Amino acid sequence: MSHVDEGTLHALLDGELAPAEVLEVQTHFATCPACSSRLTEARKLLAETERLVSALEPAAPHGAQFAPRMGRPAAEPPPPPPAPPRPSAAPPPAFGMESHVLIPNNPTVTEVRRGRRRVMGWAAGFLVVVGAGVIGLQVQMGLFDKKPVGMLKLRPEEFSSPGATDARAASPAAAAAPETRPSATGIAPIRTAPGPSRDAGTGGPGNGPTPAPPSSAQPAAPARAPAPAPTSAAQSKPPAAAALPPPPETKAPEKKPLQAETKAPERTSDTVPTAEDRQAIVARAAKATEDLDRERNRERAAAATAALDAERKRAAAAQPAAAAPATPPPAPVPTIDQRSQIANRIGLDEAARQLGGPLHAIDGMSRLLVGVVSPQLVPGTDTLRAVVRAVYVDRAGRLVFLDQQRVRAGQQGLPYTPQAGRNGELRWMAGQVLVVLQSDQPTDSLRLLYRRIR
Amino acid sequence: MTGDVGQLFETYHESLVRMLWRRTGDRDRAEDIAQETFARAVVAPPRNPRPWLFAVALNLVREDARKGLRQGRRLQLLKNEQEPAPAPDAVHERNEEVARVRAALAQLNERDREALLLKAEGFNYDEIAETLGLAKGAIGTTLSRARRRLVEAYRDMEGTDRHVAR
Prior knowledge:
The complex is a heterodimer of chains A (454) and B (166).
Chain A: H1 6-13, H2 19-31, H3 33-55, H4 94-97, H5 99-102, H6 109-146, H7 156-159, H8 162-170, H9 172-184, H10 196-202, H11 214-217, H12 221-224, H13 230-236, H14 239-243, H15 251-255, H16 257-267, H17 275-323, H18 336-340, E1 344-345, H19 348-355, E2 367-373, E3 387-393, E4 399-406, E5 419-420, E6 426-430, E7 433-439, H20 443-450
Helix pairs in contact in A: 1-3, 2-3, 8-9, 9-10, 16-17
Chain B: H1 2-24, H2 27-43, H3 49-67, H4 71-82, H5 89-106, H6 110-120, H7 125-132, H8 136-165
Helix pairs in contact in B: 1-2, 1-3, 2-3, 3-7, 5-8, 6-8, 7-8
């Protein structure tokens, strides 16, 4: 095609070209930067002219009744005239009304890349934030899983003065003293756990450091670990206590977290914790209780899931025998989306955004739906870009696909004239958009349909 | 018949007067010509009213200009315009721009100018062709030429004014 003349350019901008002419001109624009540039100039000229003619709009009060009409589409008379239908009053083709969006105005490659980088940057930031949150959560959960009541373990250094802590650290006997002191004075210690520790306590101060049995004193043991020397504790352990099977370190506190919670103030009774310490303890206890509840719920859910799986297996095993005589259920009728192999339905606005212009349509046929399909399904398309598919049904009930894809700058092998593909499809370029018409119909029928594309 | 013309008047009067005002620069004259146009429509009701009304109105403008029937009145109006009341700067600038655009429009030939004004009134190419008696295929070229000439003439005047102002 030779270059587009000035009159045609202005007719295009005024929406006065027929659809076929628009297609032809747009195809030319795709390959002719000179004409594209002239189109841009013509558009500026038209805008400038409208501005100038609008300036003639009277500024006098009388002019207030004249609303500016420069932007009104060409085919829209002010109010609908009561004239009989005539060829000149007929609305121009729909392409004319939308000529302002038909003009190629695609972003440059740099703009596209910049936009992609911006999106990737946001996505990376989002992933970093989410990843940090997940890792933090896992670390927190991991601590709780390993030591569920770790927060409950007493930390004398938090409740007592540094001097007292130092004294305990210096002498195991001094560290054990708070345990034994109440019984030495004849006051029974407040404990919910039975016997052994009380028995140990009644031994009196003369018995030396007597480590409490693991069942009751275990929660305090790790926190006090630095105080008693392991060797002396093992040596002074009574045979009965030594004979008891030492429970795993993590299990004992798990089973009696509330008990440990009630013990916390008791163990620190000699150090007089402050109100803040108490609040902290209460807060930790509440958190530990929540964790425990969560753990229990998790266990219950796991048990329920296991039971459900077993129930399903049982039902599945019993079903073949019962369902054997019954007729197999009819195969589900594929939906129009499945028949069209559409991944996602989209609206016309989104389609126009994908294509950089309005969606092409078949004149005289009702479009069933518009969606996005994989480019693998449409021969000859760029596999890196989505294909917009408009689905039609002809009178025989056959599906007709009008696939459209915006081409890349510099894309090779584009059909600038309608070409029949290997599968009988018809492919051609419409401006910046590659259009592929597919159907079960023969190619000749598709060529007839091609004339109705607008 | 009267009802039809009344409806025509209601539908097209505003658009017709605006086009005539742009064409002549004279509100009263535009109103007069519009009245005369509708009066003719009463006598000979048009089949295709919009192009007919605008074609008749433009013919009247040309005829009026040729005969110079209102020459004295126009001179009086121009005289009044040359001695306006002191206006704020914005109004003054606007008046200057309107004068420039009008002068640029006056440099166009009759056909280009009318095609431009009809397009500004929302006429499509078929209607412009029917109103001006041209072929539809020539309208795009006519409009492109008119637009280019108008903008060039306006820029020339803008440049001249700046030069004079310096």
